[in-house]
Amino acid sequence: MNKNYLSTSSEWTFETIEAYDREIARIAHEKFRLDTYPNQIEIIRSDQMMDAYASIGMPVFYNHWSYGKHFVNVEQNYSRGRMGLAYEIVINSNPCIAYLMEENTLTMQALVIAHACYGHNSFFKGNYLFRSWTDAEAIVDYLLFAKNYIAHCEERYGVRNVELLLDSCHALMNYGVDRYKRPTPISAAAEALRQQEREQYIQQHINDLWRTLPRKAQVDEAIEIQKFPAESQENILYFIEKNAPLLEGWQREIVRIVRKVAQYFYPQRQTQVMNEGWATFWHYTILHEMYDEGLVNEGFMMEFLTSHTNVVMQPDFDSRYYSGINPYALGFAMMKDIRRICENPTDEDQRWFPDIAGSDWISTLDHVMRNYRDESFILQFMSPKIMRDFHFFALQDDDRRNVIDVTAIHNDEGYRLLRETLSQQYNLSSQEPDIQVESVNIRGDRSLTLYHHMHNRRPLSNDCYEMLRHVHRLWGYDVHLHSVETDGRRVRSYHLQEGRE
Amino acid sequence: MAYVVDRRLNSKNKSLVNRQRFLKRYHEQIREAVSDAVSRRNITDMQRGDSITIPKRDISEPVFRHGQGGQRDIVHPGNKEFVQGDRIQRPPAGGGGGSGSGDASDSGEGVDDFVFQISQSEFLEYLFEDLALPNMVKRQLVGSDSFETQRAGFSEVGSPNQINIVRTMRSAQARRIALSGKARRRRREVLAELADLEEQEEPKSEEERLALEEELSRLNFRLNTVPFLDDFDLKYNLHIRVPKPSPKAVMFCVMDVSGSMTQDIKETAKRFFFLLYLFLQKNYEHIDVVFIRHHTQAQEVDEETFFYSRETGGTVVSSALNLMSDIINERYSPNEWNIYGAQASDGDNWQEDNQRCQKALVDGILPNVQYFTYIEIGDRDPQGLWHLYQHLESDYADRFAIQRVRDNSEIYPVFRELFKKTMTVD
């Protein structure tokens, strides 16, 4: 084979990075048909990497103490050698911004370029969640707006006030996303909505007058009042932004900013295994292709494989390094497995995956990447081989029993249950408590009632009193939270009322 | 094809604001941690930065999440011996480690402390926050290096490099207007008249024209003699040397080393002296420290001897106080020096000596010092010296303070008590 190494040194220069990028881009685009945003590769120092960490990876971000806390934590652990920094951070924007650390060797830079600039990048551009929920064109501009707006509010209304508001919003951040995109309302519905908003506006201003009426009258009327909101609302922050009676304009805007940011990150939280698996699969495949083409030498490959192996290591549950399932390991194994099923299907694969066994692997993987998230990806594509390789087993921990049951292992009876259980583990809506706005007492004390729809009888943690305080700060009036069983029974109630707790 | 951008030259410390906000928010906890650190640490590394530990629950950011209980299904990798239907004993609550189900992993309710580092200056900042030196009045000007140059307006004389161009030009213009304004106006009139004459072209005006022309040339001469810039216009920036108060302080450490003072008590005293030293260091540029130890006789010694050599014998406190006032008289003139005294003792003293102590303090020391503190270490009842000093404290409230300390952990609170800001007296 003809050897034409791009370089043999481990020191990177801007020229060599560009050369590698050119080759990687050629292989990714032409050979493997990856569709990417243009790339912007930024070389930064390790302390800048820490800064980037602290502001959840974004190039601009508003100020808040919690990022400072995050920062001192990272700084501390890094300087003590307790943790390494990520080799890269990549931002879902157009152009796709990737940060590379200057400490990396040339091999690492090549790995990172393949991983971030072509792997993650094509995932951001292709996956349906990112396509429908995030706006890669506008995010950096929006964050810049957010930063300036919040800085302006701090000047005008005081750092302390803004900070308190942000605390509360951050606490509810996971409840600031629309989990299911609603169809755009038809015009009549939109009109009705506006109408409703107008009414609401009047409502809010009239309530003060009504308070002076005798209590009796209120109770009678409350019976015939329609429930508000008509349907329960899962997006608590949105509901607060639109309906909280006491918030001022700027406060609503800040709630909205936090909501937008939460929405932007929501797809990432839902596609961790897929996203990392996809990127890892591609750096692995692309760099191997480079080796096959004679562009890199054995030394390069040894170094690359060493760090690749570290990244995809999965400790067993009883190891002291175990901290859950490594998304890189699982995702990479599954992506690779899908390629195997396409190229060399076994009889088992023919039975389990009749529609993809033997198909073109590049287009199959592309289809997978575009149309799934972790939960459905695992449910659909985890093969028995993966379960055997990982030695997966499922446990059921039920507080009504004093033992823990092993419900499934990697055998013929267990595969389906195992796969279902694992897929649920990546279903955010079953991992996070399902809490929704149930009703507002619009004619009475304006109290807000939240329902926690229990799943498998799992209760809320003790945090939730603290949480109610945050909800209360935003809502301004009493807040009630009921844990509700599937049969509608109220199992437990939490209240936060004015003047007492 | 990607753009490769070098961002390494961009500014660092993008997170500085966030970090400061974090410190500000947990101000109270950090201050507590600092005061813990003082009682825990060795004196020699007292002024390093420190790792600050805050209980995690204090700074957690709450979110709604599941608590313990209910039914949970979870998948783990690495099965070795389990088969379907196996039952595993639930590990004891909070166990976490060990084999078994390995189930403690993702409940996420760990209560580890949050530890981070603050720098030396931040440490001292927190340590001495809200503290002030009482009577920081005496500021003697010493040495030639304690001058600083300040701008002091403008002057008519100076060296060329100090010329203030704006001022100079302004003054030149004013002078030119003052000296030539009238002549200039006149010249305009003359020129206009001459122009008129030309139009009329009457011979009888010849004489008049000659007169006008003569006046014009006189005016031109006059105007030309007004210089653009005159010596008189030059203005110079004036710098004067202002004597800079260079605060000097001397700190007297007075300690009883008689037999009754155990090494523990000395250690406590040492912490107190050290805190005082750090505190003075923050406020004064130059500090001398004088160590005076005493049993029945007093001696000025070096630091090592002061803290570590042991003596036995009785206790005559007045000897040390007399020595202190002698040293003040000899070397540290109260006009030049801010004098601080700190005395540590277990409170023992010869009964008969108390009167002499009072005299030494009232005559030789208290009039000269900025502040004199006395700490009595030990958990016995107040001793003779304490009662004596209590009387004095009420008479010299602005410069004399006494406190009792039982052990190391009390040093810092007592120190704060002695120097807290409300003590300032004008």
Largest interface: A-B, 103 and 65 residues
Biggest sheet record of chain B: 6 strands, mixed
Distance between the termini of chain B: 72 Å
Terminus-to-terminus distance of chain A: 77 Å
General form of chain A: globular
State the total count of DSSP E strands of chain B.
13
Tell me what portion of residues of chain A adopts beta-strand conformation.
5-15%
Largest sheet of chain A: 4 strands, mixed
Low-confidence stretches of chain B: 94-111, 140-144, 422-426
CATH architecture of the domain at 248-423 in chain B: 3-Layer(aba) Sandwich
CATH superfamily of the domain at 248-423 in chain B: von Willebrand factor, type A domain
Q: In angstroms, what is the radius of gyration of chain B?
A: 40 Å
State the helical fraction of chain A. 55-70%
Shape of chain B: flat
Would you kindly provide a written description of the structure presented here, covering whatever features stand out?
The complex is a heterodimer of chains A (501) and B (426). Chain A is α/β, with parallel strands linked by helices and 501 residues long. Among the domains of chain A are: 14-127 and 271-306, no CATH class; 312-426, no CATH class; 430-496, no CATH class. Chain A is 55% helix and 11% strand. In chain A, strands 6-7-8-9 form a four-stranded mixed β-sheet, covered by helices on one side. A three-stranded mixed β-sheet of chain A has the order 1-3-2. In chain A, helix 7 packs parallel to helix 11 (249-270) and helix 7 packs across helix 21. Chain A is globular and about 80 Å long. Mean pLDDT of chain A is 84; it is low at 182-188, 206-215 and 217-222. Chain B is of the alpha/beta class. Among the domains of chain B are: 164-232; 248-423, 3-Layer(aba) Sandwich (Rossmann fold), CATH 3.40.50. In chain B, 40% of the residues lie in helices and 20% in strands. Chain B contains twelve helices and 13 strands. Chain B has helices at 16-25, 27-40, 56-59, 120-127, 165-200, 206-224, 263-283, 303-308, 317-330, 353-365, 384-395, 408-419; strands at residues 3-6, 50-55, 71-76, 87-89, 113-118, 147-155, 236-243, 248-256, 286-294, 298-301, 338-345, 371-377, 400-405. In chain B, strands 10-9-8-11-12-13 form a six-stranded mixed β-sheet, with helices on both faces. In chain B, strands 2-5 form a two-stranded antiparallel sheet. A two-stranded antiparallel ribbon of chain B has the order 6-7. In chain B, helix 5 (165-200) runs antiparallel to helix 6 (206-224) and helix 9 packs parallel to helix 10. The chains are: A alpha/beta (501), B alpha/beta (426). At the A-B interface, helix 1, strand 1, helix 2, helix 3 and helix 7 of A face strand 1, helix 1, strand 3, strand 4 and strand 5 of B.
